[in-house]
Design brief:
By secondary structure, the chain is an alpha+beta fold. The chain contains 16 helices and 22 strands. The chain folds into four domains: about 100 residues, no CATH class; about 100 residues, no CATH class; about 90 residues, no CATH class; about 130 residues, no CATH class. The chain has a five-stranded antiparallel beta sheet with strand order 14-18-17-16-15, covered by helices on one side. It is extended and about 75 Å long.
């Protein structure tokens, strides 16, 4: 398999989900192959199944391992199943679950069904009062889609209870994950195995990573439960595992031939395969176009907050311009920047799911950039519902930017007039950032009480970028007060300045006035209390 080209079937791999509580052979910071973290048996008479660490010395240990059907060292197939509630149980319950320990539906404090790792595929659930408390009920024919169940959790169920709908065996990377489970001790779906028998404990910090090569253990951007590093100098593999409730382990393994072969295949699958490209939305044509460029799937995942590459045409648009050209037009593109435009947040910092379907495609980004629309503005328009290039360009010409709205609020609330020319320019602003450069405040609280009062003043610099790239700066001096007695109240006032020295002078004057007011008020209170 070539390290620079995409091969194999270019179909998006099924998500290797890991959110279900599982069978975790580990304790914090200790290589303990005989301690298990697993669900306790679900009991219809108990509201909720508990979980916890259990020592091999505990009599219940063999009961749990037998019930779950796992020895900790053999990966178990995981399924999505359709659960037929009518066949399961003819009785209403406070909670529905499987005998293996997976809780599925319970009653919330508000009297509504709470589903765990499952969804209603057909019919409906409801809550009924049976006289001795609320119970989960359902319409006849209701089915639940239960995700990521270990095969051993359903093998002992009556066949009429469920129908399999998806198997982890269908995932193109399933073989790799199972091998990593056995050779490296990394998580496979809900299971974390004991550390391999030849593991030794190690203290491994961020500083230690500098001489280590990171080994991908999952497709780009997918939640992972371990970090793997190769230390070629020491012929060692370092594994850091993240477990339940903050518990984890880290250890060092010898870099044996079978582990090095596995690491080579993990790199190829998770960094260069057609499935890796498909996991970030890129089709085989895009993968072929980007072969030999820095734009591997990891780089494309980092790019998603800015744009998506779906087709060969998108890929050609992306590489037809240098990163500097993209950046000059307001699209922060860099294949090598690991901290780039917020790895999982778009330009401007607004939260957005970094998924292909939520991003402008590279070809669309090229057209938007040609119309003078930056990435930040493009996603502002997209979040407002303008999802096509034509709609976005049309809205861009008439819809105020977020920066322009910020400017309108500042100018409209200022107690000092802003020159008409500056106000008009700010109304066309394309970007805005604010930095608080001075602040002062004093809060006074009554002893052991929320009652109190306070005064404050801030000096903030606002930078507005105009359509041509010019920058206008205004200075905001805002002061305020708050008071809580029987009721709470507060107030504030703002003055804008275009001259930095005038703004600083106003801030100092306001601070001095507030300090004098504070001293006078405190003295009056002391005098009245004598």
């Amino acid at each position: 398999m070539s390290m620079g080209s995409a091969v194999g079937t270019a179909r998006p791999p099924g998500k290797h989900r890991r959110h279900r509580p599982g069978f975790h052979w580990q304790t914090p910071g200790v290589l303990a192959p005989h301690v298990v973290y697993a669900p306790l048996p679900w009991d219809g008479e108990v509201d909720g199944a508990e979980s916890g660490f259990l020592s091999a010395d505990n009599p219940g240990f063999r009961v749990i391992t037998g019930r779950l059907g796992r020895d900790g060292r053999t990966p178990v197939e995981h399924l999505d199943v359709l659960l037929h509630l009518d066949a399961m149980a003819p009785w209403p319950r406070t909670e529905l679950g499987l005998p293996s320990g997976e809780s599925l539906v319970s009653v919330t404090a508000g009297g509504a069904p709470l589903l765990r790792h499952c969804t209603v595929r057909k019919g409906a659930l409801s809550i009924a009062d049976s006289g001795d408390g609320p119970r989960v009920t359902w319409e006849p024919g209701t089915t639940l889609l239960v995700e990521d169940l270990p095969r051993t959790s359903v093998d002992r169920l009556p066949p009429s209870w469920y129908s399999p709908s998806r198997s982890s065996d269908d995932d193109p990377a399933d073989t790799l994950r199972r091998e990593a489970f056995c050779l490296l001790g990394t998580r496979y779906h809900s299971d974390i195995p004991p550390a391999p028998r030849d593991a030794r404990s190690a203290d491994f910090t961020g500083q230690d990573r500098r001489g280590h090569e990171h080994v991908p253990s999952e497709y780009p951007g997918w939640a992972d439960s371990a970090e793997v590093f190769l230390d070629e100098r020491e012929a060692a593999v370092v594994v850091r595992r993240f477990g339940s409730a903050g518990h984890g382990t880290q250890y060092v393994l010898p870099a044996t031939a079978d582990r090095l072969d596995l690491i080579r295949r993990m790199r190829e699958e998770y960094l260069y395969s057609a499935s890796a490209y498909a996991s970030v939305g890129a089709d085989p044509g895009a993968a072929d176009t980007l072969a030999g460029t820095p734009w591997n799937p990891v780089a494309l995942r980092r790019l998603l907050p800015v744009m998506a590459v779906r087709t060969a045409a998108d890929a050609a648009c992306l590489i037809s311009r240098t990163p500097d050209t993209w950046r000059r037009q307001g699209w922060p593109v860099d294949a090598t920047d690991d901290s780039g435009p917020g790895r999982d947040v778009p330009p401007g910092g607004a939260a957005r799911d970094a998924e292909p379907e939520n991003a402008w495609r590279a070809g669309q980004a090229e057209a938007l950039a040609a119309a003078g629309i930056t990435a930040e503005r493009a996603y502002e328009l997209r979040s407002a519902g303008f999802l096509s290039v034509r709609a976005a360009i049309s809205a861009h010409a008439t819809r105020p930017t977020a920066a322009a709205r910020d400017a309108e609020e500042l100018v409209g609330t200022s107690e000092t007039p802003v020159p008409a020319r500056i106000a008009a320019e700010l109304a066309r602003a394309r970007a805005h950032d604010a930095e608080e450069v001075r602040s002062w405040g004093r809060d006074h609280h009554e002893s052991c009480s929320i009652e109190g009062w306070g005064v404050w003043v801030t000096l903030t610099r606002h930078r507005f970028v105009l359509p041509g790239g010019d920058v206008r700066t205004v200075w905001d001096v805002t002061n305020g007060w708050w008071a809580i007695s029987d009721e709470g109240d507060e107030g504030r006032s703002r003055c804008l300045f275009t001259d930095a020295r005038q703004a600083m002078s106003a801030w100092r004057t306001t601070r001095a006035e507030l300090q004098a007011y504070e001293a006078r008020f405190l003295e009056e209170r002391r005098a009245s209390s004598v």
